[in-house]
Amino acid sequence: MVLFTITAKFNANTGNKAKVKIVGGVNLQKLKLVGYAISLNGITIDEQAEIAAPAAAGRFSGHILPNQVIVNLDVVGTSQIHNATSRKTNGTLQTSPPVENTNPYSTGIPLPIGDTLKTIQFGMSGIEFDIGKTIHNEIIVEALKYDDEGGLIPMPTGTPLKVKADGTVETGGGAAAANKFGSTTIQMITLYFNYDFNSYF
């Protein structure tokens, strides 16, 4: 077995797509996903303290985390992953009915996120992808998430903001005290694979 890792870093310039360079050729028949790590950016400790400073603001109420990141890899065939999803809604999940025939379709790898900005998961088995080619140059990694209406959207990148519970920013005077949460943006994804050794190049 050979360890093969893909580490994609994201920022405001790359957006939610990163090109990962691989040096030399890797001859792959099958890739087995054995673990992953996801790092999210959140607002700083100083910003969290600023939220609690005004008497009316109360306390920092935590970062708003997606429940999973959907990762598209251009080396994995789209016929190998199918994610069944619920219908989208017209607005918030609490008040809007589902809309017929609006289930977002995805062929990316769904990676659950824990309750902190850093998620690390190992000991996975049974997830295997047929590759059947040599990777010589670049791999494109795309990060997506589901929004509050059930739609599939790009993971945000760049600088996180102080926001309300619904992820929007309140402006003006005392209204800004409602920004008790921190938004999150994608910083890095590392995927850990095993594959069977085939030959030297």
Structure explained in plain terms:
The two termini are 17 Å apart. The chain is built from one helix and twelve strands. The strands form three sheets. Strands 1, 3, 6, 7 and 12 form a five-stranded antiparallel sheet that branches. Strands 2, 4, 5, 8 and 9 form a five-stranded antiparallel sheet that branches. Strands 10-11 form a two-stranded antiparallel ribbon. The chain has one helix spanning 45-52, and strands spanning 2-9, 17-21, 26-41, 68-73, 109-112, 118-122, 128-135, 138-146, 152-154, 162-163, 181-182, 185-195. Strand 8 (138-146) and strand 9 form a beta hairpin. The protein has one domain (2-195): Jelly Rolls (Sandwich), CATH 2.60.120. The chain is mainly β and 201 residues long. The longest helix is centred in the first third of the chain and has 8 residues, at 45-52. The model has no long low-confidence stretch (mean pLDDT 87).
Kindly state the percentage of residues in helix.
Answer: under 10%
Assembly type of the shown chains? Answer: single chain
- Terminal CA distance: 17 Å
What's the overall average pLDDT, rounded?
Answer: 87
Tally of DSSP β-strands: 12
Q: Number of helical segments?
A: 1
**Alpha carbon gyration radius:** 20 Å
Number of domains: 1
Biggest beta-sheet profile: 5 strands, antiparallel
Give me the strand/helix succession: EEEHEEEEEEEEE
- Determine the structural class based on helices, strands and strand pairing: mainly beta
Low-confidence stretches: none
Q: Outline, from the CA principal axes? A: globular
> Which architecture would the CATH scheme give at its second level?
Sandwich
* CATH topology annotation: Jelly Rolls
Strand content: 35-45%
What's the CATH C level? Mainly Beta
